[in-house]
Design a protein that fits this description.
Order of helices and strands: HEEEEEEEEEEEEEEEEEEEEEEEEEEEEE
Radius of gyration: 18 Å
Number of strands: 29
Number of domains: 1
CATH architecture: 6 Propeller
Length: 311
Amino acid sequence: MRTSLMSVAAALVLVCGCGSQRTLASGQHPAQIAVDATSVYWTDNAFDNGSTGQMGSVMKVALSGGTPAVLATSPNPIGIAVDATSVYWSDYSDGTLKKVPSAGGVPVTILATNGYIDSIVVDATSVYYADGSFVNSVPLSGGTPVRLATTTAYGSPAVPAIAVDATSVYFTEPGSVYPAYTEGSVMKVPLTGGTPVMLASITNPYCLAVDTTNVYVSTFLPSNPDSAIATVGLSGGTPNFLVTTRAVGAIAAEAGDVYWTDRVNATVKKVSVSSAPATLATGVNTFAIAVDATSVYWGDTVAGTINAVGR
């Protein structure tokens, strides 16, 4: 049954006592962020710091904070993902996918394209990415890319978000924003490619996350509040709206909880199917968020910091 947006909007937003915000690193220019069992990783974007011609970098710092380490330099690094041994990133300037050992070492180019690659995700075998209207994969060691799906959606980007689980790649197809908000789609396709399946039709879906039971998606709305967070089952169905909010910058999911950044109110928040929304952190300016078993992490583009707070 589809939850009413009016009833969700009226829900009490709590301030959660989940622990103090903590700064892990400062003096940074973070774009996107990832986390593993020991460290936080981020792309440090040269184009955001006003230094023309300055190289960006791929960075890491311990979960407890400390001195950041430079793993690699890159002209304009954006997307980032991590597995047990390596850190992967996309460079928006030269259309490349690269990787470097998470312990440090020599960077390797996995793929060179003529396109613009933003967000990326990885699993045990492949890197998944969107290049224009196409959803693709390439082996972790490099090689020939595989086109998994083609979207007919219009927009920039045509595929705003991508996520992966053990069987499928999930992606969003946006609707139009102006002059009228129209329905977009939440889609999935098998890891090896095939016929994409529409999981749900929803007003202008954008950010995306997935856990073992649900797909979580943010939407733009023609109203104030101007965004919402909804869930859709992994097999599809009617979207269940959890909360309305303002200007979602990013979302992440873990064990039934979904976390997001509210760029108007400068907060990190969380909600689940069974609990009221809660504010975890304030004074936040970010388009990126990551989560592990204990904490939520983000890079603040105004303060130039890498931060964490308990879940």
